[in-house]
Amino acid sequence: MNSNSGIVNHGGSMEVSQSAVGHGATVNVSADREQKARHGKHADVGVITVLGKEAKAVYEVLGLQRARNGNLPFFEGTVNVLDTVIRVAAIRALYQGQRSTVMAFDHLRRHYNPAVVVLVGIGGGIHADVEIGDVVVTPRVVYYDLRKETPDGQRRRGEEREAPAVIGHAINSFFIDYDEPADFQTTDPNGVTREYRALTGPIGSGEAVIADAKSEIIRYLKAFNDKVLAVDMEAGGLTQAFHEQDGAQAVRGWVVVRGISDDASPTKNDGYHDIAARHAATVLHSLLPYLHLPTTDTT
Fold this sequence. Notes:
Layout: H1 31-39, E1 45-49, H2 52-62, E2 65-69, E3 72-81, E4 84-92, H3 98-112, E5 116-125, E6 135-138, E7 140-143, E8 147-150, E9 153-156, E10 159-162, H4 165-178, E11 182-187, E12 193-199, E13 203-205, H5 216-224, E14 230-232, H6 235-244, E15 253-262, H7 273-287
């Protein structure tokens, strides 16, 4: 029996990389190194938005530029805040809701390997301490959609997740420097200047669009934790994606930044989406240097 080991080429050209030649030769390539070899991309902070107005606000405020990585449309750029240069990559989730947010998280993780992922956009306020236009910055999310259906009605089984302590310390440092609540002032593209606040506290997350300030969901969240400030439809997916990630490219933390666009009441409408989204993006801009975690990456 004839045996052959090595490389045979019958004319033409060929390229061999990350390979070994000879009988029994092996090559070990880490997942992180393999990813960098494929894409050559890295970001310090990854950003997820959902609505078009949220995405536009982030891209404009942070000065990001369109960049295709694989078949996915990302935006990326460097942001200099407080003499700190932060590399940012952003993607807009395909749809509203928890499931697309999970996929957006994974796209950022695989293509840019950020240390921190931030979900940025709008939300509904459900607490007396927040007003329309304010921004909630939080490392704590209560997922309210786990429930049991019984003949006597629904029995919710809320699940609270908190970001790692390094993120909690980063947010605390931000509010030490900016005060709590932090006062912000933003002039929009039309030249209108508005004042608003950034504050921190848990938010609720589930699949429901809430347009009733007395809804069973809001009553449940207030009973679960009377400090819940706002609600959204995506943060639960972000926390689940972070919780279940594996492999060498592990994200180290997450944050949710929500501009309050309504009070989750029957008067809820889209009239304040632009303003709330820009306020959230502006607060994110100031928050970025606090999320610039130490890394051994040298790309």
